[in-house]
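Exercise 3.2. Students should predict the tertiary structure of the chain below and write it as structure tokens, then compare their answer with the key that follows.

Predict this chain's 3D structure.
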Amino acid sequence: MLLCSFLAGAKAPDTAGQLRDLVDSYADRRGFNGTVLVAREGKVLLLVAHGKANAEWSVPNRTDGRYRIGSLTKPLVATLTLQLVQQGTLRLDGTLGDYLPDLYADTPAASVTVAQLLSHTSGLADLPARYTDDWWQTAARRHYAPMDFAREWIPPTLREAPGQQFRYNNNGFFLLGLLIETVTGQSLAHNLQARIFAPAGMTSSGLLSDDTVLAQLAQGYARTPAGQWAHPQWIDPSVSYAAAGIYTTAEDLYRFDQALYGSSLLHDDTRAMMLEVRAAGYGFGWNVETWFLADGSTLPVASHTGSVPGYQSYYLRSEPHRDSVIILDNLWQGALVAAMGKDLMEVLNGKPMQRAQRSLDDLLTPIAYGQGVDAMVRTFAGLGERGSEYDQSERAFNTLGYRFLRAGNREAAVRVLEWGAAAYPASANAHDSLGEAYRASGRLADARQSYQTALRLDPTSRSASEALAALQADLPPR
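Answer key:
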């Protein structure tokens, strides 16, 4: 572990200590592998690195290490886009037909505006959401010029009318990169460097290309279904581009965060417009929320997560006290960084620190694959008093159960989701999830009973009612 902390104000030593203990617990109990920065009022309270930058050579992560940040690229591209709007180079009501006529003139997509691209309300079709889809195993491994990618994979057809529905959309941000290149006559990489990185003092950031050799870039890793470290699937960086292509450091992201308060990137009114909710809690390139704290007060929080095979990230900022939480991770672990980021921001704002609980996934998955499901069941039953150390929330059971289900281990999925339904008998979702596992395992009568329980608990459950209707043709009369 590498650690650097800077104390600010009378209460800072205690707060910094709690933050450090919390991050340490995530590293010790949940396997966090990456770098964290937490700051308030322009002072860094905690900067710490855990785990390995390169597992093969046992090279530790460093506080100045570079990471790919996936969709955390979007707030930076949104800031760049709004700079150009601020300068009059782009218009929020400008359309794909206006800026990319060779691709979209006289098509259904021609009326999509810059504002709709920024707010995920364009109606455009997107790439497959799951990296397990064949597209990510084939087409995503090719190198594309941005215009060629758009021509081949961002069709001019629409799923719904522009502006009607929020639908998270990587293709929309890819097109913002192409618009930026078109109106400036310079590459997206050049624009990011000249308009974002240089003004903010971000000296270790850039747009990844497939021929880039980067000093201090942490190697990305994933986990196998059995919990072993592995190299992630390869995706050509040209596919990520303006949607997910930036690499950076925790300190550089913090420089970006601080630059947003001045005039070097955006005017105050433009920043306020960027952070105004447009649809489904999303502004222009940011999730925008109001958190309710334990003391009854509220906290405005703007944030974004990022995920690309091998890397995950989470960046949260709150303006009243200039709070910043930045997490960069080079071990793909599901929702870990999201839980960690929320905990850190809440502790920074007065919540008593509670160390992270251990993961049932980390404990049980290697046993299920190495020793079998019966051994997994015995291990869980034998936890006894140690069980309180583990996260046994409804979400934890549900997440682990579906992980087994997606991996084809239906027996393990059923056992885990049975535990979840037993622990949370009043949860319609727990019974609905168990019904899905029973159905996938061919236990149709049990599936029907679980779905009926879910529907009794929540008569509005669409998934339970649709599943019951589909089961009717498969079940013999009782």
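Discussion points: The mean pLDDT is 94. The chain is about 45% helix and 15% strand.
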